[in-house]
Amino acid sequence: MTEQPTSYERPQGVDPTDARGALLRTQGPTPGATALPPAAAQARTDGTPDTTTPGVPAPRPQEKDPAVSDAEHSQPAAAAEPDAHRPRPAPEAVPLQPGAETRAERPPDGRDRRTGQAPTAGRQPTPMRRDGDRLRFVGAATRRIARGLDLDEIVMGLCRATVPTFSDAILVYLRDPLPVGDERPAADRVVLRLRRTDRIPEEREPEPGFAQLGMPPPETPELSELSAAIAELCEVRPGGALAEVLRGVRPVFADTPAATAALPELLGAESRLDIPGGQRAVLAPLRGRRRVIGAAVFIRRPERIPFETDDLLVAAQLATHSALGIDKAVLYDREAYIADELQRTMLPETLPRPTGVRLASRYLPAAETARVGGDWYDAIPLPGSRVALVVGDVMGHSMTSAAIMGQLRTTAQTLAGLDLPPQEVLHHLDEQAQRLGTDRMATCLYAVYDPVSHRITIANAGHPPPILLHLGGRAEVLRVPPGAPIGVGGVDFEAVELDAPAGATLLLYTDGLVESRLRDVATGIEQLREKLAATAQLTGPDHPPPLEALCDEVLDMLGPGDRDDDIALLAARFDGIAPSDVAYWFLEPEDAAPGRARRLARRALVRWGMEDMTDSVELLVSEVVTNAVRYATRPVSLRLLRTDVLRCEVGDDVPQLPRLRQARATDEGGRGLYLVNRLARRWGATRLSTGKVVWFELNRGS
User: What burial letters (b/e) apply to 356-375, b meaning 16+ CB within 10 Å?
Assistant: First the structure.
């Protein structure tokens, strides 16, 4: 019985679907039309007998559910297109070479097993079918390349999309360094660096029904080790063959005169890579928006059919999409780097070490793709051994948010230097935010800790409340007025003064730590409080947990879906200064004040067992008090603090700050601050709302 041709018959010589889901048509003599291999036909028809007759159109096949097929690799189904009935190979299969299927199906006499006809020479796949296959391949490849966000992903996408579907190996060269945007390169010389290579692995196993590509012996260095066989760097000589090919932009075959002279320059004089002849290699320049940024070399093995002329268009499309993607990736990386550096420079590099308090901090961006935000923290030393603790959050995740954050942080530091109350600082920050723009909103919490009085004053502007962890392990959310965010305008801010016992830890944070898509702010604050209490139980009631370990434990409470916002964290451990380590006096602004200050300082040193420092302390105290009483109109304050150093503070009601200057030989005065600068460990002067404070520190035992 003669078997009738079916609707899934196709012309011979057409390669089956390749491993990436794209179809590559090849040239060469094609035998007469035959059906698919019996095994493939049986698998395609699922055992259903053939009922079609010649001259009668085949019934339209039922289309598959688009949700089942892969979006990138799916093929359109059509009644008039025989490709719709073609079997799909396994993902890692290697395409059949021309004639492989024919050799597998035909008996030794050369006749077709199904039709019994002799092969007919001269039949070729129609150009429309080849162009459609190339179009589908280019679409799938460009989608894969476009998925990359950074430079490495885009280059890898190009390699994986072309090997083994389009070529057996690929070399990708990029300029070193890569130009960014419209900026001109620093030097006129162009250097190409081998960025990535890819090839068909030697150990690839063919799938059933597909032919194996001919592989060279292991000792052949053709494609086995590409990176080791060619030079890593290539300097493009001006006016050379490689420069002319790159300037031409269009891909060329390797056997053309221009490419024949350019490839040795690109691969290196000592290259051990043997480029196959006969249009089996394509050199494609990679041109971005402004200039050529590299080159790609597509290589096929001698066992594989050579490239066709239309394949140059495919190479041009791949090179164009890859170059534009690399351009965008470089621009994105530069913008992300600038934004990241901008924010990092606006955050404190190191925290100060004020007297009576220990500090630790953490900052985490929202995500790797959005590393810039408006969260900030700060610790500002104040006169009288006090310290200001600040944490804030500007709305948004952009360079604008980071810039606004930097301006508000600078304003807060300036206002803190004036020793303004916390509520006044927030009021001036609110005015500054309104001057920056109508939509510049931020939250901020400003606290001032006094280690001498063991008190802390807090003002809040719409920020989450701080949590105080006591020495015994109890954690409480401090009740502070919430206030309105900075930038609203026309609102008053309130400040509350609370106890800050020694050994307690104050935790300031931004809402990114307690709020996410999976939980609200109230739930997150309660979870944070419980986390702090549980961590404190691990070290016992008499030993607070270390600050650095405590910050790490707090961040461990974040889950995979909790990184929706930036996180700024500032922890302060209150050690305080004991009352027995503080000596405080008021001196009338009269001529006898310096002598009385020396006697009071001597008595305090004797009481503390620091008699060896008497001479230095008396000399410096006398000089500073003399400068104060010369211009003061109200009593002058004198305070000595004994911590790891001896600190002396002299305050008066004159706002002008003293300046260090070199006295002339004929001057009777002007040497007091010079002596302080030479003998003291550190010294400084701070302007207050009621005057100024001049202070100096001496190492104990000096």
Answer: bbebbbbbbbbeeeebbbbb
Tens of pLDDT, residue by residue over 629-686, are 988 999 999 999 998 889 999 999 998 888 777 766 666 566 778 888 888 988 988 8
**One-letter-per-residue 3-state SS of 340-356:** HHHHHHHCCCCCCCCCC
Residue 150 has phi, psi (to 5 degrees) of: -115, 180
Are 439 and 486 spatial neighbours (Cβ–Cβ below 8 Å)?
no
Q: What count of Cα atoms within 13 Å lies in the side-chain half-sphere of residue 452?
A: 14
Round to whole Å and give the CA distance between 18 and 94.
6
For the segment 452-498, what is each residue's pLDDT rounded down to a tens digit?
A: 999 999 999 999 999 999 988 899 999 999 999 999 888 889 999 99
Is-contact 617 646, C-beta < 8 A?
A: yes
**Distance, CA of 605 to CA of 646 (rounded, Å):** 10
In the chain, count H helices and then E strands. Answer: 15, 21
**Which pair of tokens denotes residue 387?**
């310290």
Q: Which residues of 383-422 are buried (b: 16+ CB within 10 A; e: fewer)?
A: bbbbbbbbbbbbbbbebbbbbbbbbbbebbeebbbebbeb
Contact criterion met (CB below 8 Å) for 558 and 347: no
| Residue 576 Ramachandran class (φ > 0 left, ψ -120 to 50 alpha, else beta) | left
324 Rama sector, left if φ>0, alpha if ψ -120 to 50, beta otherwise: alpha
Phi/psi zone of residue 179: left (φ > 0), alpha (ψ -120 to 50 degrees), beta? beta
